[in-house]
Amino acid sequence: MRTVKDKLYEEAASQIQEINDPEYCYQNEIGTEKDKIRAFELYKEAAEKEDIGAIYNLANCYQNGIGTEKNAIKAFELYNKAAEKGQIDSINNLGYYYRFGIGTEKNEIKAFELYNKAAEKGQIDSIYNLANCYKYGIGTEKDKARAFKLYEKAAEKGQINAINNLGYCYQNGIGTEKDGIIAFDLYKKAAKKGHINAIYNLGYCYQHGIGIGKNDIKAFEFYKEAAEKGQIDSIYNLGYCYQNGIGTEKNEIKAFELYKEYNLAVCYQNRMGSERNEIKAFELYEEAAKKGDIVATNHLRPRKNKILNEKKDTAAIYTTNKYKSDEPRYATEECTVV
């Protein structure tokens, strides 16, 4: 028999289902604020009745600002509550919050313990996050062999970041023997699933002949595809291609514009600048987007509300970092929250 809290949860889920894809909503102008607020209210009501799924989803609302203001402290508290009740995704997310000090004090040992707990229960993202802990020595001693095995385990279960990172391990001999062919195949597999770092890594493989014959045209094409999806390092490498005529005709004007965009993206990503100057960064993206710059458009959309609504308490001077263009850049992935 369906209870009142079951009905509340189902109604909230139906409200939220159509608004969970920000890109789709942005393009099609669906998922009104009214829908989001209603979903938040229903999750809150069901959570008050101790529905474990609703507690998790309410935390997610606070985390992402769905139907309410973002509130990292409340999100942390709710993930903690759901985790104590055994909600497996909440255990993973709680680890993420401890890992980065979101809504609580940073505690990498606690993060490691939580990832390990969720991983033992089969939570795929936690298996991947645990691999990162072993790779980088987060809350535990570095163990590259253990990291490799965990990436492999998560990749076998379809965890897309793990597939990309497993490729990185094979490419660089991390916890295993180097094998460029396997690395290339893994990047290709992740790229087919839309993983933008894997798309970028394919470009890198084609440029340097890793696991495949060198092909500057394909390298350029993959860098361009990843850059258009907002992959920051691809913006830099695309500029490098234009500057040096790799897979395309030399075009120093385009190279300059891409280097400038890369540095702007780095400044934003690293939160360099005061509130006023982060708004300036947004304005620069907006100006470029209006001129048809696809890369700028992809950076603009997910950041629009964040830049305009978040309050910053830093007073650093907004600046553009200068990088030499003698080497292309390489990327890997970081932690996953669900």
Automatic annotation (TrEMBL):
Question: Superkingdom of the source?
Answer: Eukaryota
Q: Spell out where the chain crosses the membrane.
A: none
Q: Which residues form a coiled coil?
A: none
* Gene3D superfamilies according to UniProt: Tetratricopeptide repeat domain
Please identify the protein, giving its name as recorded.
Answer: HCP-like protein
Q: Which organism is it from?
A: Rhizophagus irregularis (strain DAOM 181602 / DAOM 197198 / MUCL 43194) (Arbuscular mycorrhizal fungus)
